[in-house]
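Per reviewer request, we include the raw input and output of the structure prediction for the construct analysed in the revised manuscript.
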Amino acid sequence: MSANVVISNNPLLQGSGLPPFNDIKPEHVVPAMSKLLGELDKELTNLEANVEPTWNGLVAPLEDITEHLYWSWGIVNHLMGVKNSSELRSAHQTVQPQVVQFVNKLSQSQPIYNAFKVLRGSDEWNTLESAQQRIIEAAIRDAELAGVGLQGEAKEDFNAMQMELAELSTKFSNHVLDATKAFSITLTKPEEVEGLPLSLLSLTAQAARENGAENATPENGPWRITLDYPSYVPFMQHSSRRDLREKLYKAFISRAAAGELDNSPLIERILSLRQEMAGLLGYQTYAEISLASKMAPNVAAVEKLLEELRGASYDAAVQELAELKAFAASKGAAEAQELRHWDISFWAERQREEKFAFTQEELRPYFPLPQVLDGLFGLVNRVFGVNVTPADGQAPVWQEDVRYFQITDETGNALAYFYLDSYSRPAEKRGGAWMDTCINRRQLEAATQLPVAYLTCNQTPPVDGKPSLMTFSEVETLFHEFGHGLQHMLTQVKYVGASGINNVEWDAVELPSQFMENWCYDRPTLMGMAKHYQTGETLPEHYYQKLLAAKNYMSGSAMLRQLHFSFVDIELHHRYRPGGAETPKDVRDRIAKTTTVLPPLPEDSFLCAFGHIFAGGYAAGYYSYKWAEVLSADAFAAFEEAGLENEQAIQATGKRYRDTILALGGSQHPMEVFQSFRGREPITKPLLKHNGLVATA
């Protein structure tokens, strides 16, 4: 194929509208991005030469450049997450340095930075909306954080570091994906799968068939167990073979920690580069850079919140482990005196079953995906007054299972659209769940460009003719990601720089997602969607009561686990010094003394798979989950106070929430947005109450 053909018909150069996924191939990436970057570079040079320090002369043309780049490069990055292949990786790797180079040039442009500063001091400033002012303020701050003030050698060093960090981050992520994919155990004897639920036997038999064992069945095997979450988590919860649990656990905690896929040297290098960059920008530590654009004012404020939550959860976690040991002993378990890491999930699941007399597995038949979606869409209609309807076939998709939906307002006007990619595909799709932006809401001359979101989950696919039957935690995950989607899709801001989740401080961005999880326990919501996939029977009342009772089961341990990650992240980016007496692993082990009740094993290399902080946007920001959870619990408390049984009050509170937290996006500081919804600043009590860690009185 000649280069001209690839460019002239290149779907990645379409530049706007829905991505033509049917036509995009890895070989389109390099020619498209090379041509696009060349064109955008000319546009930038032209803008720099003729820049006017006004909104229309500066921000609007700059928005055109960044949106055009994001449209094409965003698709490539999306496909890296959901349709990964060696050809795509190679193309991504070839082009990424050019993209980083262009982004650096853009963010370090002195003429544009100067024009922003002039605009901020001009008469026009006072005529601008708060969204516009926030966009300008953020542009000035981001330019300074991107090294706009650096000269000569310092600037060259900084840019080389940015380039290397981008490469290291992609490499880190690929290593985790490859290491997860590389490990599997194939079990052939019935005694090896003792205790495993039918849903897992079906999934692992299907995995074995896909791997060449054509005659594999759920009843007779063979069964292929992998480190992918839908396989790993239920195995650890249900396998009565302690030796196999140990084997799987040790494989899981040592992912990407040896051989060609070892992320340890990458971690050292990433932390070292971040520390050097901080120094060049005049900051003491990388954590200070991270917090410069967040809601939390400083590291001390972050650690104060984390410590307040640690104080409330540590003793509870110690107590929970003691109770678990006593429970295992009461069942005559040989390991009861010294429960090991690979025993915790198993015994916690047994204790949960006995304490609350139900299993996660028993509930699966009541949560077929189509039914859960109906419940979710019914909820957003009830609370926020919007309608979600299928729009399959109206947009090209990257995989046949991907669905497409439309959101309309009360009068039927289209507000937004989203893709839903639900199922686990370990060979090509990264683990976890996420929401990402496909198209931003934006006011164009002729019309409003409507937002489009990507919602991605990794739940069990339909197996053996059954629909995808979800665990309750998968239901919560779907609600979580949809919460992010709502903030992106229901925004009323017309400027890209502050619409949806854009320009929302990172530690406030989890508010709408964590807020949605609370509704999974709301009776009308849960009972509306929990219907048996075969009989249509609604979830029996006793299960609902048990779910409520089990909600805070081991919540001290769960909170402590998140706090452990948060403290480690802040410590690595604030006090740790690369090349000093401690290694990153030493730092983690030291912090584990006060943030775990079962210290990590010597071979635990969890950091090597901690993609959030080494390959995602959470560096010195993992605490954001807890910071935002305080906000989200307090926001949900507004609905509880209004009365969850009071439809009128729910709708009124829902409207206020939609008009503030969902509509305002990044157009105001999150504290102002929160106060306009709640009427006051947030407090931690609702979060501790929701977790059963303080008295509810």
